[in-house]
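## retry 2 of 3
previous attempt timed out at serialization; input unchanged, resubmitting
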Amino acid sequence: MPPELAVKAAFLHDIGHYTWYGEDGEWNFHSYKENDIHAIKGAERAHKLLIRLGEDRKSAKEIALAILLHTDSYLPSGDLQLTPLQMVVSQADEANEEPDGLHHYRMIDEKEALQRIRDLDELVQQTSKAYEKQSS
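## retry succeeded, writing output
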């Protein structure tokens, strides 16, 4: 799979999150689990954003579908046949899970965030070159 698609889907996979707070101001994890549709909202928002930014329509659809299927929190039980891109985004989402959704509140220093993005950009460029050579 093209590394750029995986990175875009990974960055955008939780763009549809809404916060679910109780009357006490605390995250209501039970209500969130019962009523969550962030993947549906996120797939729609990501697709619109990607198209507006000039992404190829086929790629935008692939990314949106990976976002839609990155979690099973709202899906009926059963087996889905996920594409490699969908599996990568789903596994990446599970990799940083913390109890009660605490991973959504993790804070990092702005300098560190910028360095991580630069490092990721370099890695994506290297991986994309290798992917293109392999695909030729």
